[in-house]
Amino acid sequence: MPYTPFITIIIATYNSKLKLESCLQSIWNQDFANYELILIDGLSSDGTLEIILNNQDKINYWISEKDEGIYDAWNKGISKAKGDWITFIGSDDLFYPNALSDYVNFITNLEDFQKVEFISSKMDLVNSKDKLVKTFGLPWDWRISKYINTISHPGSLHKRSLFEKYGLYKTNYKICGDYEFLLRPKENLNSKFMNKVTVRMAQGGASFNGRKLFNEHYHATKNTANINSIYALYFYILQMSKYYIKNLLRFLSFNI
């Protein structure tokens, strides 16, 4: 029998009333049906629970309780996952209609798909007006990725065995926990890149907190990737400089 992947989709939510329904609809609109949906809510108080309850017949597992942030929520989801592949998507992000089938076709056409542990693609980043800001996503390459994150994480596929081998996400990270996790296998991560756009990601949220992002990135590269502290500091300063220059130019453009 040909191999048909079973995919677990995990969504972490907290007060996501305005965006969650669109995210869920993007999953139900997929042209690939061999998946399960797990939703972990952080005890929302804005009406998110009503959306979950109204759609719970299409959600395989959900829970609403206080957590320590997105990575704690993802860990709870992983503990309930049955899929041989696991993917994560933000509650304010969208899968494009062919995302899962594109991934499945990509996997089943790989000669060594049994050995592959991680597959990423590209994402469209949009602003608050739903206008495209940029398309992002490059292959994971240890020679480069140990210094700078090159991948688009939303929607990427993780073989479940990766978590069995390297553990769960570290909850002390609030932004870069997904990057830190992929650094753990070092050069041994067997990854592939699908050159297609699969996700539409909304600009904003925790991952766009520049200073905190770069602080966590610095600690991940230094402590998990074990790169030289001088190199880690160099890339930290480089990224912080680019961040502040970009914001300064944006400020000046608004005030000219």
TrEMBL record:
Gene3D superfamilies: Spore Coat Polysaccharide Biosynthesis Protein SpsA, Chain A. The keyword RNA-binding does not apply. InterPro entries: Glyco_trans_2-like, Nucleotide-diphossugar_trans. The keyword Transferase applies. Keywords: Transferase. GO terms for molecular function: hexosyltransferase activity. Residues 8-111 form the Glycosyltransferase 2-like domain. Pfam families: Glycos_transf_2. This is Glycosyltransferase. It comes from Pedobacter cryophilus.
